[in-house]
Automatic annotation (TrEMBL):
Protein name as catalogued: Phosphoadenosine phosphosulphate reductase domain-containing protein
Gene3D superfamilies xref list: HUPs (3.40.50.620)
GO molecular function, one term: catalytic activity
Domain Phosphoadenosine phosphosulphate reductase: 36-221
Length: 619
């Protein structure tokens, strides 16, 4: 039985909880579908407990309970301690729902491949958001948009005619500003606030009038061993309390209150390599310092985060070539995204961290099996790897991005790094960078290097797969031998490798895993292939599906990369960036060339106009 008759210790919180549960049951009776948007922090865990209890009681009372939902979003680079914890919670909810036969479906939200940190930063080189950034795109791309997509899926599954109430853990007592926003929006414990963008969707802050002590008291009341009044998806919330305590320099979470250390986006723990927290991630450092036995494995991740922050102004790690070409054939030189060398460096560090974590878990598991350490829940948890940044799906996405940009000399450059670290024993430890190594400085004024155009007398194929065009009709007669698109600049039809499209860039995780196992045999066989051959293969086999209408962009990027590689070969230089800077002209000199070009163009137009007058007169 989930609720005991009476326990004086929890009398106050039981009264408040019963009031919320009754409110939620009434919503179910009226045909509303409920959805708990949970991060498994203290507030959203509290709401989830109340929702599950309401659904269980409603079902036991023979109420026709509609399909309800639990949504959870994951940025992909969460603090591993919190990520491991939420993984355990999700599994526990699944077991609880199955045991009690509750109509609750789990919906997981994650960033799209193209928006993820791995593809955008490690793949394409887009800089992470630093503390001096004017915007917080990461919060939008990794949290807001995935949650919006998840809500659309939930809305579709619930049925357009069904009213949906999204339960949130917002409380007025969290802060003065939060209270003001909630009152302005009309939030109360029972108010249903219509969603501005979706019909029949409402939000409800069902614990709006609760205090922080109320929240913790409810969670502590879910402990059967201590005479708790509720039985829910976990035996107790001791681990939740421990995480909050560790993240606040060992201080009791109840004493710290709603303050304490938070990430820049407002999350209690934030991402594992959040660069918006400034020079230090105090929450993660606190976890490492106060609970080294439990969270010591976070040291390498914190070191990587610090490395990214402290090299922000190291412009030698940046890509200097801008994309456009001026009217006089010059490309602007200015530090922009991460260079290919920096991207490879980050991947090497992350792969090494993954391997080190696997080695730590194996050693810990052996010590546990041999009785060298006590058999506790924490030690059993640590016997498994607590994180894996670079999954096969992520690795394939990075490899595709590197191949499209074409800045490496051989096919499958990211897979080669994985193979050498995984199977050849290479390790790349994150270096310690002194805080004063790269002080803040202004971006230097643009310089300009003459390239002529991105087209070239040498054949630049881009993503065209000439070999595939020849053999595909025989090997794969049930599909086209190649793909094509119309060039928006020239109007000509360009051929590319056969490709498949999806709503957005998509990598099949299962197929990526199979290819990774296959690459163990392909490592040496692909040494002689150029980098674009790898991209053509991934497209031709359907391992990567591009967003609709995006193949032209990928082909244009690929042709631009080929142009730079062939220019470097013809000039016989090792460092193209350095060569371009040494042979560049200033902004003023480039301006004079543009003015001269305009003058000549005007003279040509005048001559053409005079010639047309002469022709008209002769006629």
């Amino acid at each position: 039985m989930s609720v005991q008759i009476f326990n004086s210790r929890f009398e106050n919180i039981q009264t408040k909880a019963e009031r919320v549960i009754s409110h939620l049951i009434h919503l179910l009776e009226d045909g509303y579908a409920l959805c708990s948007a949970s991060s498994f922090g203290k507030d959203s865990s509290c709401v989830l407990v109340l929702m599950l209890e309401a659904i269980r009681r409603a079902k036991a009372s023979d109420i026709d309970v509609p399909q309800c939902f639990l949504s959870h979003s994951n940025t992909g680079i969460e603090n591993p301690a919190m990520d491991s914890y939420t993984g355990e919670c999700l599994s526990a909810v699944e077991r609880y729902v199955e045991t009690h036969d509750l109509p609750v479906q789990l919906v997981l939200a994650e960033p799209s491949m193209s928006a993820s940190f791995f593809y955008a930063t490690v793949g394409r080189g887009k800089l992470p958001r630093f503390v001096d950034a004017k915007s917080r795109e990461c919060s939008v791309d990794w949290k807001v948009k995935p949650q919006q997509r998840a809500l659309k899926r939930i809305r579709k599954q619930a049925g357009d005619a069904r009213n949906l109430v999204v339960l949130v853990g917002s409380r007025e007592s969290e802060s003065v500003s939060r209270s003001g926003r909630m009152k302005s929006a009309g939030h109360t414990a029972t108010a249903l606030i219509p969603d501005d963008e979706s019909n029949n969707v409402f939000s409800n802050a069902c614990i709006a009038d609760w205090s922080m002590v109320d929240v913790w008291e409810l969670l502590m009341a879910c402990d059967g061993k201590r005479g708790g009044i509720f039985s829910t998806y976990v035996e107790d919330f001791e681990l939740t309390l421990e995480l909050y305590k560790a993240g606040n320099q060992g201080a009791c979470a109840i004493l710290v209150g709603d303050g304490g250390q938070k990430a820049a986006c407002g999350s209690r723990f934030g991402c594992g390599i959040c660069t918006l927290t400034g020079k230090r991630d105090k929450s993660m450092e606190s976890m490492i310092e106060n609970e080294p036995d439990q969270f010591g494995y976070l040291k390498g991740i914190n070191r990587l985060r610090n490395f990214l922050v402290l090299t922000q102004h190291d412009f030698s790690r940046r890509e200097w070539f801008q994309r456009g070409v001026s009217e006089v054939g010059y490309v602007a030189l200015s530090p922009d995204n991460y260079s290919s060398i920096m991207r490879r460096e980050i991947l090497r560090y992350m792969l090494t961290l993954d391997i080190r974590e696997q080695e730590r878990a194996d050693e810990h598991s052996g010590a546990l099996a041999n009785g060298e350490i006590p058999d506790t829940p924490a030690n059993r948890r640590l016997a498994d790897p607590q994180f894996e940044w670079i999954t096969p799906k992520v690795l394939l996405g990075i490899d595709f991005a590197w191949g499209v940009h074409g800045t490496f000399d051989h096919a499958f450059p990211a897979f080669r790094e994985w193979y050498e670290i995984k199977h050849l024993g290479r390790r790349y430890e994150v270096p310690e960078i002194e805080e004063c190594a790269f002080p803040r400085k202004t971006i230097p004024e643009k310089r300009y290097y003459h390239i002529g155009a991105y087209e070239h007398p040498w054949k630049i194929d881009g993503l065209r797969n000439i070999y595939g065009e020849a053999v595909n009709p025989q090997r794969r007669p049930d599909r086209p031998a190649f793909g094509a698109y119309k060039d928006r600049d020239t109007g000509e039809t360009r051929r590319v490798a056969y490709f498949e499209e999806s709503d957005e860039l998509e990598v099949d995780g299962f197929e990526a895993n199979l290819f990774l196992m296959e690459f163990e045999d392909l490592y040496f066989d692909t040494l002689a292939l150029e980098v674009t051959d790898g991209v053509r293969y991934l497209l031709d086999r359907g391992l990567v599906k591009v967003g609709r209408g995006q193949i032209a962009t990928y082909d244009r990027i690929s042709r631009r990369g080929q142009r730079w590689r062939r220019l470097q070969e013809s000039l016989n230089v090792y460092d193209m960036h350095q060569h371009a800077l040494e042979n560049s002209i200033s902004k003023e000199q480039h301006f004079l060339l543009l003015e001269e070009h305009k003058r000549r163009q005007a003279e040509i137009e005048d001559d053409q106009f005079n010639l047309e007058l002469f022709v008209d007169t002769a006629a």
